Amino acid sequence: MINNIWSGKKVKLRAILPTDWAKFHNNDFDSESARLSDVIYFPRSEEGTKSWAEHQASQGPNGDNMMLAIETMDGELVGSISTHSCDPRHGTFKYGVAVFREHWRKGYASEAVMIALRYYFEELRYQKVNAHVYAFNEGSIALQERLGFVQEGRLRNMIYTKGQHFDEFVYGLTKSEYEQLKS
Q1: Cβ partners under 8 Å of residue 5, min gap 6
Q2: Radius of gyration (Cα) for the chain, nearest Å?
């Protein structure tokens, strides 16, 4: 068996393919999931989603910033993970993960995050990761805490949705804390 750094026991991370457009397009109709991950955007046409998927497939990483598909070991697309605000000088980065609703609570997000952390900490020499989580996103709060992230701050009234403002939590994990998780 080939050992691939981008694979775990349940999922593997891979580039987004143009053929992934339909699953992402279908996910766009889940407004509550969109609210939990980011914001609710204007509706996008099938052609728009196809164009987005083609762009993602041809784009590749931007420096150390990337967006990858999360796929089960059986080859089913279940979501995506991205890194952003990558700062190699200071060794810090942020990440976001989104799993399609029908695949929630199966451990896919946890494993995808750990695969990404393994790469950034063990291959790229990053030393700290942060995640910003909306105060109403109980699933993401539980994920961060289960993975050993520490809540480092609360940004008050940062997110406006459903007619009101919500706080945003900042979670962080250092490389040494990650190393303790692995042992």
Answers
A1: 115, 118, 119, 123
A2: 16
Interstrand relation of 77-87 and 128-134 (parallel, antiparallel or unpaired): unpaired
pTM over cut 0.85: yes
Check residue 25 and give left, alpha or beta (phi > 0: left; psi -120 to 50: alpha).
Answer: alpha
The architecture that CATH gives domain 11-182 is 3-Layer(aba) Sandwich (3.40)
Interval 13-44: pLDDT, tens: 999 999 999 999 999 999 999 999 889 999 99
Burial string for 43-68 (b: 16+ CB within 10 Å, else e) reads: eeeeeebbebbbebbeeeeeebebbb
- Strand 11-14's sheet: what is its strand order? 11-14, 66-72, 77-87, 92-99, 128-134, 164-174, 150-161
Spell out the domain ranges in the chain. 11-182
Alpha-carbon distance of 58 to 11, in angstroms, equals 22
Q: Which residues of 9-37 are buried (b: 16+ CB within 10 A; e: fewer)?
A: ebbbbbbbeeebbebbbebbeeeebbbbb
